[in-house]
Amino acid sequence: MTALLDIAIHEKSYGARRVLQNLTLQLRQGEIVSLIGASGCGKSSLLSIVAGLDTDFRGTLRLGGKPLAGAHAGVQADIGLIFQEPRLFPWLTVAQNIAFGLGARGEHDPRVAQLLQEVGLHGLAHSLPKQLSGGQAQRAAIARGLFGQPRILLLDEPFSAVDAFTRMKLQDLLASVAARHGLSVLLVTHDIDEALYLSDRIVMLDTRAGPPRAHYDVTSPRPRSRTPAAQAGLKAAILAELHAAHAI
């Protein structure tokens, strides 16, 4: 299958510290890929590069076969980005946050009501972020990420700040909206169970800058069980490789 996104990072450094080197990765249409590895191995840096928030690197990005300019500043329309924290503007309503890119009248765009319904926030369009629970705020962030109708959704540990039950609900929400919108997803997570539940592939970055340490195909059919005996062997292999990489 032809890749939607081709990533080739020759080098990314912070001063004398090199975090990414000779790294290639492809993301196919409709695929969910999780990035795992030790803290500091470059997972979030890679997401920032793909999003266009970090242009200080050597390498190339191609979307749909066409180059993404290394100097593109900010997240472009084809790419949605969701952070660990919702990062909603506290003085704007939920609807205004979702449609922020369209300015003052964006909240009346029919897509806002549609997305509110889709992420389970119907009736909260005029609420302020301080009136939302942590899970509701992250649902609003997901809706905002979807508003621009991106082809790719980037998520940097998006569910790590919520309780376990809310995390499971948000994982199910991500899986459903990705399938419904035909999105390709690149997810950074430290949770192996989360990666196994959501992903088509898992890519482990090494503690030393270089090519990915390991790739794992997750072939279990969807919808998936959260306690799949069939994936026990794969989880054990991933944990063993993380131990070998001194990641945990």
Task: Give your account of this protein's structure.
With 248 residues, the protein is α/β, with parallel strands linked by helices. It is built from 7 helices and 10 strands. The strands form 2 sheets. The protein has a 6-stranded mixed beta sheet, with helices on both faces. Strands 2-1-4-5 form a 4-stranded antiparallel beta sheet, with helices on one face. Helix 3 (110-118) crosses helix 4 (134-147) and helix 4 (134-147) runs parallel beside helix 5. The relative contact order is 0.18.
In short:
The protein has 248 residues and is of the alpha/beta class.
SSE layout:
Blueprint: E1 3-14, E2 17-28, E3 32-36, H1 43-51, E4 58-63, E5 66-68, E6 79-82, H2 94-98, H3 110-118, H4 134-147, E7 152-156, H5 164-181, E8 184-188, H6 192-198, E9 201-204, E10 214-217, H7 232-244
Parallel strand pairs: 3-8, 3-9, 6-7, 7-8
Antiparallel strand pairs: 1-2, 1-4, 4-5, 9-10
Keywords:
single chain; 248 residues; alpha/beta; six-stranded mixed β-sheet; four-stranded antiparallel β-sheet; 7 helices
* Unreliable residue stretches: none
Taken from the alpha-carbon principal axes, the silhouette is globular
In sequence order, what are the helices and strands, one letter per element?
EEEHEEEHHHEHEHEEH
> DSSP strand (E) fraction?
15-25%
- Strand segment count: 10
N-C termini distance? 34 Å
Side by side, the strands of the main sheet go: 6-7-8-3-9-10
